Amino acid sequence: MTANTTAALLSLPISLFQPTKINTRKVGRGGLRMVAVLEGDGLVGKKSDWSKLFDVDVPRPRFPQCKGKFLGVNQALDVARFDIQSCDWRARQDVLTIMQLHEKIVEVLNPLARDYKSIETMKKDLAELPEELAKAHKQVHISEARVSTAMAKLAYMEALASDKLIQDTNRIESETNSPSSSSASLDTVKRKMPPKSLNVSGPVKQYHPFMKNFWYPVAFSNDLKDDTMIPIDCFEEPWVVFRGNDGKPGCVQNTCAHRACPLHLGSVSEGRIQCPYHGWEYSTDGKCVKMPSTRLLNVKLRSLPCLEHEGFIWIWPSSEPPTTTLPSLEPPPGFKVHAEIVMELPVEHGLLLDNLLDLAHAPFTHTSTFAKGWSVPSLVKFLTPVSGLQGYWDPYPINMEFRPPCMVISTIAISKPGKLEGQSIQQCATHLHQLHVCLPSSRQKTRLLYRMSLDFAPLLKHIPFMHLLWKHLANKVLEEDLRLVIGQQDRMINGANIWNWPVPYDKLGVRYRLWRDAVERGAKHLPFSKSK
What is the pTM of this model? Predict the structure, then answer.
């Protein structure tokens, strides 16, 4: 039901709580006007007492005039807008029906009206009311579905219009700014860059402290046993994660305070990590609690806020106290986790995120793995709200989201191998859900946490060594990507701009880069953020 209709209902005069009669009057060309007539002591008021509620105007179609076979973008938008106007008219008709039924109920229950009706007539009226109410209720749901469909159609058409605008702009800029010679130098190419390009070139700059003001997943809970340690690098600093005597995780600097020995080479016992060099022991808050062969000194390592949540170990790498809540990374209802894989990759985490947020490369890059047999579409689009970091791919049945600060979540509808096109997420019964966490270890290294879930075949996870098969497949896919991304990284370090000419299907990757730029600038409100 539309906002205008809802507002009309909420603005009904208080006098309607008194005995009233709802009526209609014809206005304009086929339109109706809903009016309320106050009744005093069962008597109908004069026409001058009529109180206008709202008008139900019949929408007038405006079919766009076009000479060719296909509608233009603006013409198609007009058609979508007319659909919404029609839905609004239908919704107002539904409200009219419901209000008339409400009047009938009031009339049946009105003690003054009962005096003039026989019992048989009242029974008949009461028997008819449930059926009429059920019909009206069903019609309201149909109208809501029509409105939802029309809104989705309008959003789709607006996305197409936006994509066409970008393509036209880039085409014009290409014709205007393209170098006159194929032997143009890199400096010439840089001077001719389109205004809409992003400048992501040169060696990766030192991470801005604002990038640390987020919770980062660093390990899977299942990998952190009571007697194990997990060494990690985060923003070019070494840390080690282990469980305390209470079972809660802690994260301390992976460097002994005594002689700078890596602590992860030691052992964990009774919730304390022991240095393998001289046996110094530390608790999860970094405090040294034991110094064999010498007097205990007041020594403490740096530690980070560390929590366990939804199967992950999280850290807050900033020197500032935590100011944000932990994001949810749980798979959707009905999905079971089948694989949890950790990899250390020799690329900067932003480059890896760029790759994961791009599906248009799949039929060219992943020809021996998951995209084997995929045809190359004539047009690939990523459709997303105007302000959002999520959307869906067309023509592929894949939903995708960038979740700050470093996560990519995707849901893939599985129909037949090599036959993904033409199916939507909702049309497929089986799905694969993926989570990629790209932890920035250093400016040329990423710690990748990959979790894969399915909403079918629950027994697969109980097959021995199945996790090794999943890991093998994940490695094969990443090998296809890494040879390209490592090449990008080399050229970027030498001055090439890896985002020189974005096109419409780069939308999600571009938004990630704009979000990251805003974080590093210390922007008060981040773009595409729900908290904006």
Answer: 0.66
